[in-house]
Design brief:
globular, alpha/beta, F-box domain-containing protein, 16 helices, signal, eight-stranded parallel sheet
Length: 465
C-alpha cells in the first residue's frame, strides 16, 4: 500500500513537472526531476502522503522530510484529557529535538494553546503577588511548558505562531479554561524562549495579553525580539504604541479596532521598512457608549475616573474616516507593496476566524459596511458591537433621559469617499485596475476563504473538506 501511494505521488510530480519543463515529461526516471519541483509539489501533500512519499527513493526521502518537518505543532490541552494526536504532543517535539538531522529541518513552530486549562495546572497553594509580573511559581511544570521553553533549540527556526483561547477570565475564575494569570505565565515563557532563538524573525500571537505587551518594551527579552522581528501578526487589539520594530517589513493586525489617532501613527512610524500591511477586520469605532472607568483608561486627558465615577453613560465619538486614514498610509508607507483590508465574515464564525488568521496575507482590499462599528458597552449579554448600516441612515438611540442621540453614523458620502481613497491608495502601491475590480467581487466561502463567486463549496481543496 505504501508503494502504491508513493507511485501515485511520483506520477503527480511528473505531470506537474511536464507543465513547467516539457522536456522532463519524456524522462522515465523521477531522479532527474529538479529538487525545486519536488519541494513545490510536496507542499500540497497531506501528512500520510508525505510519509509514503519519503519511501519512494533517496531523493524523495530528503524532500519529503524537509516538508514533513518544516512545521512542528505543540498543542496545549487538558491534563486529564491529553491530545490524541501524537504529532502535536510535547513528546513529539522533544523527539524531533533529539534528532540531529530532523531538528535542522524545523522552520516553524505552531503553539496551539487554546485548550489549556489554568486550574488543572495551578499549584495547590498559590501565592499572592502581582498579577502581571508574579505567579510564575504558581503553575506545575507541565510537559508542554517544558517543550515551549526548548523551542529555541531548533537551529533553523524562523517563525512562531501562538494562539491562546479566545475567552479569558479574571484571576482564578474557574468558569473559563484560561485566566489572565495563566495567559501571562505562558506568554512570558514564549518571549523568554524567543529571546534565545536568534534566527526567529516572524511572530504571530492570537488573543495575546494586552497587559503584558504594554510593559514588554521594558523587558530585556522582548527588547531582543523587537530588534529582530521582520514579520508580526497580532490578533486582537492591544496597545503597542510603546514598542517600535526597526526591521518590520510585514504587519498583520486582526480585530485591531481603531478609535485613536495614535494607532494610525504607530503603523506609519514603520514606514521606512514596512512592505506588507494586513488589516483583518480592523473597523473604525465611530461611537462608543461606555462607563467612566473605560473612558478614563482610554482617554485619560478627557475623563477622570475619580470625578466621573457617578457617570454611568459616557458617549465618545471618533470622527476619523477611512478617507482620512488611507491617504495618511499612502503618504507615509512609501515602501508598501501589499495591502489587505476586509471585515470578518459572520457566517461559520469559529472556523472562519481560524482560516482568516492562517491566510491573513491573502486578504483582499475592499470597502464594506463592517469597516465602521459602534460599541455599546451596556448592551448585554449579546455582543456590544454594532455594524455600520449600509444604507447610510443615521442610527439614533435613547439615553437614560429618553433623549434621542446621534451616533456619528457614517453616511453615503463616506462610502463614496472611502472607495475613492482606497482605489487611489491601491494604485499608488502598484495594484492594477483589474486586480482592484477582482477584489471587489470576491466572496467568502466557509472553509475555503476569499474566492470568486463562481467557486462552489465542492471546489475547495480536498484537505479542507
Amino acid at each position: 500500500m505504501h508503494v502504491r501511494h508513493a507511485t501515485l505521488a511520483l506520477n503527480f510530480i511528473i505531470i506537474v513537472s511536464a507543465l513547467v519543463w516539457p522536456s522532463i515529461f519524456a524522462m522515465t526516471s523521477h531522479k532527474h526531476i529538479p529538487v525545486e519541483v519536488l519541494l513545490q509539489c510536496a507542499q500540497y501533500f497531506d501528512i500520510p502522503t508525505l510519509k509514503n512519499f519519503r519511501l519512494a527513493s533517496r531523493a524523495t526521502a530528503t524532500t519529503g522530510a524537509e516538508q514533513l518537518f518544516h512545521s512542528v505543532i505543540l498543542r496545549l490541552c487538558s491534563v486529564i484529557y491529553p491530545t490524541k494526536v501524537p504529532n502535536e504532543s510535547p513528546m513529539h517535539l522533544s523527539a524531533v529535538l533529539e534528532s540531529h538531522k530532523l531538528k535542522h529541518l524545523v522552520k516553524q513552530v505552531i503553539v496551539d494553546a487554546r485548550h489549556g486549562v489554568h486550574y488543572e495546572e495551578r499549584q495547590e497553594d498559590p501565592t499572592d503577588g502581582d498579577i502581571w509580573n508574579g505567579y510564575t511559581n504558581d503553575f506545575l511544570p507541565t510537559p508542554w511548558a517544558e517543550a515551549l521553553c526548548n523551542m529555541y533549540r531548533f537551529p533553523s527556526l524562523k517563525e512562531v505562531d501562538f494562539a491562546f483561547n479566545e475567552h479569558c477570565g479574571i484571576h482564578m475564575d474557574d468558569e473559563f479554561q484560561q485566566d489572565v494569570v495563566y495567559r501571562g505565565h505562558y506568554q512570558r515563557l514564549l518571549f523568554a524562549t524567543l529571546s534565545k532563538a536568534a534566527g526567529c524573525d516572524s511572530l504571530s500571537i492570537r488573543n495575546m495579553q494586552d497587559a503584558l505587551i504594554a510593559n514588554a518594551d521594558a523587558t530585556k527579552e522582548v527588547g531582543a525580539v523587537k530588534e529582530r522581528l521582520k514579520k508580526l501578526g497580532i490578533w486582537p487589539f492591544c496597545d503597542l504604541r510603546g514598542i517600535h520594530f526597526p526591521h518590520l517589513n510585514s504587519l498583520a493586525l486582526g480585530h485591531w479596532t481603531i478609535a485613536h489617532d495614535w494607532q494610525i501613527e504607530w503603523i506609519t512610524s514603520h514606514g521606512q521598512t514596512l512592505q506588507s500591511l494586513t488589516l483583518d477586520d480592523c473597523p473604525i469605532v465611530y461611537a462608543l457608549n461606555i462607563d467612566a472607568k473605560i473612558a478614563a483608561a482610554n482617554w485619560p486627558h478627557e475623563f477622570n475616573s475619580d470625578s466621573d465615577i457617578v457617570t454611568h453613560n459616557i458617549r465618545k465619538y471618533y470622527t476619523t474616516r477611512w478617507s482620512d486614514v488611507l491617504p495618511r498610509l499612502q503618504t507615509h508607507l512609501l515602501h508598501l507593496k501589499n495591502f489587505g483590508m476586509a471585515p470578518r465574515p459572520f457566517k461559520d464564525e469559529e472556523r472562519s476566524h481560524k482560516l482568516i488568521f492562517e491566510t491573513r496575507y491573502h486578504l483582499p482590499s475592499r470597502i464594506e459596511p463592517a469597516r465602521y462599528m459602534n460599541f455599546e458597552y451596556w448592551f448585554k449579554p449579546s455582543t456590544p458591537w454594532f455594524q455600520h448600516k449600509a444604507q447610510g441612515w443615521t442610527f439614533r438611540i435613547q439615553n437614560e433621559h429618553g433623549i434621542m442621540i446621534d451616533t456619528n453614523e457614517p453616511d453615503e458620502g463616506d462610502d463614496r469617499r472611502d472607495e475613492e481613497a482606497l482605489d487611489r491608495f491601491l494604485r499608488a502601491i502598484g495594484t492594477s485596475d483589474a486586480e482592484i475590480a477582482r477584489m471587489k467581487v470576491l466572496d467568502w466561502q466557509p472553509g475555503v476563504g476569499w474566492c470568486m463567486p463562481s467557486m462552489k463549496h465542492t471546489d475547495r481543496p480536498k484537505e479542507q473538506q
